[in-house]
Design brief:
This protein is of the alpha/beta class. The mean pLDDT is 95. The longest helix has 17 residues. It is built from nine helices and seven strands, in the order H-H-H-H-E-H-E-H-E-E-H-E-H-E-E-H. Helices cover 39% and strands 25% of the residues. The chain has a single domain, classed as Vaccinia Virus protein VP39 (Rossmann fold, 3-Layer(aba) Sandwich). It has a seven-stranded mixed sheet with strand order 3-2-1-4-5-7-6, with helices on both faces. Strand 6 and strand 7 form a beta hairpin.
């Protein structure tokens, strides 16, 4: 395992068991293997995967005490951030939705390999999900601009829950553009948490709390969202 990963975990006071660390090792090797036949990630060296994917995903625990929450991960790709979170916090209930069936196929094999339960995998578009207002946390990482992402995520957050947008430190313009839509969809920007992923690389989590219901007309279909963001 990458020693910098261990140092980072120690800094955030997150203790992983040997069984959990073994799952991360299996995750890395399976990702490396499958990435040779399908495009899952441009980051593939062991050191970078452990820091820029695994540790970055686990940083959600810096913002919210994680126990048994119900999490929806939108556009999860190769499983980030939800699968690392599930490994470290086994009682989480995870739903992953991705529009590409091949990626869901990869995640199905991965969750079987890692023997993870309470992980629901859905191939499709999030706008079509019937479970509005049901999730404690909705996450999205490197999916789309925030003024589009907010409509794909906030309708599915329960009152009192959070939409967590994981972004680079160059987020200000995106956030300013998205503010009217966040309010319209029932959210409020509670905080912005900046953290260091690796030396010289910083990311942020934009914490948007759901404080009132979203109108049932949202989310619209994707073409409308993209053409006329809120």
């Amino acid at each position: 395992m990458n020693p910098d990963f261990e140092i980072k975990l120690h800094e955030m006071k997150l203790v992983l068991t040997k069984a959990m660390l073994d799952k991360f090792a299996k995750y890395y090797h399976f990702l490396e293997q499958e990435n040779q036949v399908m495009n899952l990630t441009a980051i593939i060296s062991e050191e970078e995967v452990y820091l820029k994917h695994f540790y970055d995903s686990l940083c959600l625990a810096k913002a919210i005490p994680l126990k048994e929450q119900r999490i929806l991960d939108v556009g999860s790709g190769a499983g980030f951030p939800s699968i690392p979170l599930k490994i470290a916090f086994p009682k989480l209930k995870i739903t992953i939705i991705d529009s590409l069936n091949k990626r869901i196929g990869f995640l199905r094999k991965l969750t079987e390999l890692l023997e993870l339960d309470d992980v629901e995998l859905i191939s499709g578009r999030v706008e079509e999900l019937p479970t509005k207002g049901k999730y404690d946390i909705v996450t999205a990482r490197a999916v789309a601009k925030l003024n589009i992402l907010q409509e794909l995520c906030l309708p599915f957050v329960k009152i009192g829950g959070y939409f967590v947008a994981m972004k680079s430190v160059n987020y200000e313009a995106e956030l300013n553009e998205a503010k009217p839509g966040i309010l319209k969809l029932g959210g409020i920007i509670e905080s912005i948490i900046e953290y260091e992923v690796s030396t010289g690389l910083k990311h942020v989590m934009i914490m948007i709390k759901k404080n009132k219901p979203t109108e049932l007309t949202y989310p619209r279909n994707y073409s409308q969202i993209k053409k006329r963001p809120l």
